[in-house]
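Exercise 7. Predict the structure of Asp23/Gls24 family envelope stress response protein from Nocardiopsis ansamitocini.
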Amino acid sequence: MAVEHTEPDPTLDSARDELREERVTAPPQLLDNVMNTVRREGRSTRVLDVPSTRSLPDNGHTQVRESVAAKILRMAADRTPGLRVGRCQIGEAETEGYSVRLTVRADTGTPIPEAAEVLRRSVLSAARNQLGWVIARVDIDIADIV
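Solution. The predicted structure, encoded as tokens:
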């Protein structure tokens, strides 16, 4: 909530003037990091199979681009309180199904073990309900605290 001051305050005026003059710059590698992520994830041409719900052999074939599947899983994961998902990678599992690796930032004070389990359940549910997938594992890398 903003507080209005009716009387001049030299301390506040000085602080405001300093902030106006302060030059704000992005970290040196920020643009390169963002563009590398966009190039890597945004243009994925890899397609992944979506299982059929029918048992007929000639009922057609459904595939989804990896970037679309990653977006579905990322959106599910973003609903986890205290965690912010950055990157979502989908790989073939050693056994059946797919593996998912999420890179996330945690809000300060977030109980990471509990939040990670909520995130896993959200991703598993979205994969099963929206893509018909079996997910063998969901790996979570906590990359930063914000």
